[in-house]
Amino acid sequence: MIITSLLDTDLYKITMMQGVLHQFPWAEVEYEFKCRDQQVDLRPIADTLNRELDDLCTLRFSTKELDFLSSLRFMKRDFIQFLRLFHFQRDYIYVDASGENLDIHIKGPWLHTILFEVPVLALVNELYFKHIAPRPDYEVGREKLEEKIALVKETNKEQLGFMFSDFGTRRRFSREWQEEIILELKQNLPVNFFGTSNVMLAKKYNILPIGTMAHEWIMACQALGPRLADSQRYALEHWAQEYRGDLGIALSDTLGFEAFLSDFDMFFSKLFDGCRHDSGDPIEWGERLVAHYKSLKIDSRWKQAVFSDGLSFTRAIEIARHFKGRINTAFGIGTNLTNDVVNEPVQIVMKMIKCQGQSVAKISDSPGKQMCNDDRYLSYIKSVIARKIRNRKFGG
């Protein structure tokens, strides 16, 4: 049994789940799995994956786990009480390997399916690497980790204030390897390593759990909000209603950064602590964000830019160096941190494709990260966004 705790997930799944309970408990959704590496065949792991999912659906939150969640000031009492009753429903997830690719489909109430994504991706990743590398040489990974630690220590001489957290649960080489990395980073980079998205490991090692919202929060609001053109504003407003100033990092690329900036007006720019980058060129994104704050006469030095798109430590340090003294930077490093042992990492995702029976889309600023199964809807939402941006520019 690979997943042994329901806390073995990213914090932003739990924070979004609380928002769903309070604001959209009736919503029905669908998710679909996608492997971006066409040459990778995941079908051989299907039977083992099904057995792991059977085990996953037997788990419950323990009293100690719920006590830990209760200690987080933004977790509410009624949500904790709901989690006492929660467990995964096996009927909501389907795995099939009879076609050309491994098919994983999730369908059911958003409230009861939202936590599937991270453990499912972690299971697929770990089972795949067990299949192709049953006897991995962890010394290779340890040597790479030592090099990364040495690089950060050397960079500290520049006084960049370089801060990063672990975002690697969903694409980790294994659960044990992620835990070893967390322990090493805590011991060797206590100033730079400030948190992990993995709630179980945050609890175990007394580390700050990190996470706010993911793309699905904004995607679902395309179906839940009153107008498609205002869906991103609707998502940000409902997030602010739920957390009242906590968890104030806004995800900026669900509909593209230009569309985000058209919605991120003075109200949101002052209300949110900063933004997270997850696609497109990070330097260009950061420059546009700083310029956006400047246009609103907001001092960007009091704001935060969180970078989390396929980062290596070398690239993250370059970004920190570029923006030093202009905006506070922080970095979420995933695959390069927790899946750097053998072979190439596998690019796998699990994204929402429908909400309330309606197609939803993630447009992104990187073409390879676009997610939508409905070409007609994708064309329509792009036209809506383009018209909105055009009207904003020309005062329409």
TrEMBL record:
One of its GO terms (biological process) is NAD+ biosynthetic process via the salvage pathway. Gene3D superfamilies: nicotinate phosphoribosyltransferase. It comes from the Bacteria. It catalyses: 5-phospho-alpha-D-ribose 1-diphosphate + nicotinate + ATP + H2O = nicotinate beta-D-ribonucleotide + ADP + phosphate + diphosphate. The gene is pncB. The lineage of its organism: Bacteria, Pseudomonadati, Thermodesulfobacteriota, Desulfobulbia, Desulfobulbales. The modification Phosphohistidine is found at residue 215. Keywords: Glycosyltransferase, Ligase, Phosphoprotein, Pyridine nucleotide biosynthesis, Transferase. One of its GO terms (molecular function) is nicotinate phosphoribosyltransferase activity. GO terms for cellular component: cytosol. Residues 7-125 form the Nicotinate phosphoribosyltransferase N-terminal domain. The keyword Phosphoprotein applies. The keyword Ligase applies. Transiently phosphorylated on a His residue during the reaction cycle. Phosphorylation strongly increases the affinity for substrates and increases the rate of nicotinate D-ribonucleotide production. Dephosphorylation regenerates the low-affinity form of the enzyme, leading to product release. This is Nicotinate phosphoribosyltransferase. Its EC number is 6.3.4.21. Pathway: Cofactor biosynthesis; NAD(+) biosynthesis; nicotinate D-ribonucleotide from nicotinate: step 1/1. Catalyzes the synthesis of beta-nicotinate D-ribonucleotide from nicotinate and 5-phospho-D-ribose 1-phosphate at the expense of ATP. Residues 162-384 form the Nicotinate/nicotinamide phosphoribosyltransferase domain. It comes from Desulforhopalus singaporensis. Belongs to the NAPRTase family.
